[in-house]
Amino acid sequence: MSNEGVPPAHQDQPQLMILLGWFVIFGCAALALSILIADFVVPDHDWIADTISDLGAGRFEFIVDIGLYTYSAAVLSAALLAAHVHMGDRGWSIGILALLVFGLTVFLIGARNEYGDADSDGWVIHKYLVYALGAAVATIAFAMAKGLRRADDRYSYALQGFGALWVVGAPVFFFLPNDIDGLYERGLGVLASGILITLAIFFIRRGHALGR
């Protein structure tokens, strides 16, 4: 007898939350480390003037690409966690979709060599990916804040704070002179990672609380 409506055997998996939560943090750290390594390895690189995209092209592109792919997997892990621990409103569902867009966008940015060295194979989509990434990060911050408030106001305030800084700061990047936009882009990366780490901390702590 078929019964697709049967409830799941287990509503929550604490160990899964903890494992994936730490992987989200690891992904953020891996990207930061790959950028730091590339800053020293790539010849004639100016970390203040040159963007992360500049590091993702040329002979040593694999260094940042590894970081980007790991970061993409971390974002998708956050989406998986958010779907597993749904905090109960439409905004949370929108946030899950935005996490998927964010993760896939980061992957495509790493996979498409359309930056730094002026290479472009076929249709150039880099700028559209950047726009999608910017919109996705802002959506995650504000759409998921209400759901996190059910657990602890501090998570909600953190997401909204990072989101507000992102909404104000991200558009400025497109108008900056080339001699400082690399440093500014790294600051935006800290904001995006701050959003992900806030989510990760929530999932890790929830996992520990449920596992007691």
UniProtKB/TrEMBL annotation:
Transmembrane segments: 20-42, 62-85, 92-111, 123-145, 157-176, 188-204
Keyword Transmembrane: yes
Keyword Transmembrane set for record: yes
Keywords: Membrane, Transmembrane, Transmembrane helix
Pfam family, one: DUF998
Protein name: DUF998 domain-containing protein
Record organism: marine sediment metagenome
